[in-house]
Amino acid sequence: MSRGRSDRDLGEREGGGRGAFALDAAAQRSKAVAKAAWWTAAGGLAKFMTRPTEGKAAPRFASDAPPVSQGRLRRAYFAAFEKDAADVAAGLYPPMEDAPVDPAASILKAWDFLADAREVDQRRRRGDGVEVRDDPKSQGYPAYYRQNFHYQSGGWFTAESARRYDAQVEALFSGAAGAMRRRALSLLARHWRGRDQRVLAAVDVACGSGAFLRDLAQAFPRAALAGVDLSPAYLSEARTRSGRGTVQANAEHLPFGDGSLDAVTCVYLFHELPPRVRPIVAAELARVLKPGGVMAFADSVQPSDEPQLARMLEAFPAYFHEPFYGSYAEEDLPALFAAAGLRVVGQDKAFLTKALLLAK
């Protein structure tokens, strides 16, 4: 049995016996229900409006994998929320504030997402994933970064994109994005359990608009935390959401000393890196860790993790402009990180996300 699985079993047993956190777990479940219903409805409406799989200009892909079992998919989806609530019940982290709580703000966010959905679909049908390269704000950045990943308007370069990003992701995953990425938080929280937060320092690399950095701040309020990203627009959003400092930097060249950090976190970055860049970033993440330090990693599951979902995973880059996803799907991640001096000491999985804890 892997350490990641045994840790998970322990957490579930703890969650069942810790009355002190029972109300917190109930609160997390109620938030999850509200969030899932809201973003499932928003995502469904966007699909109804755009019908991305229909029409002559709809993307096409070929696959030898069998159709995805909808029952299997639903079970994996609901299990993500249950794992999240179990970790709250175990006292690993508090209930997370990522459900719609302000009706007016939630409606405006959903309206903005829906208004932009048509532009995203038109870009998808044109196959235009590099529109952003004509934007002066994108000059001077790595070529692989200057793309409209997910066909999103503005790429990584506008304040509007940064504000809209979480709505797009939550609608895509029917409200499960937070529960999925917190598999990495779960692994880190178990590893740090009982440690004095005041002496711990961690950086969230490729923090984007700050959703995971906010989770870290809520789980470890006394630790020294910061976010790193290449996009000034997304860093501004991350600072607002998390209340923590940020640094603009490329993950290939982090502005931290050798062995200076207790932990680094990295969520949904590696599937957007070209194959030649992944070893560079892995080595850089390892460089800044102290001996014994850890990296909490989360990204898409790979077909080898979920063979029953292989067809869906193969369709993803066709509909969402992920030019490096195909090579990521075949990447041997433990071997990639082992070459950088990191070994897998924990693992977890929820819905369409896998998480690893790697030690230096």
From TrEMBL:
The record, for SUPFAM superfamilies, names: S-adenosyl-L-methionine-dependent methyltransferases
* Alphabetized InterPro entries for the sequence: Methyltransf_11, SAM-dependent_MTases_sf
Report any one BP term from Gene Ontology: methylation
* Keyword field contains Membrane: no
Instruction: State the UniProt keywords alphabetically.
Output: Methyltransferase, Transferase
What is an example of a GO molecular function annotated in this UniProt entry?
methyltransferase activity
- Please state every residue range assigned to the domain named Methyltransferase type: 203-297
Quote the protein name from its UniProt record: Class I SAM-dependent methyltransferase
List the source organism.
Caulobacter hibisci
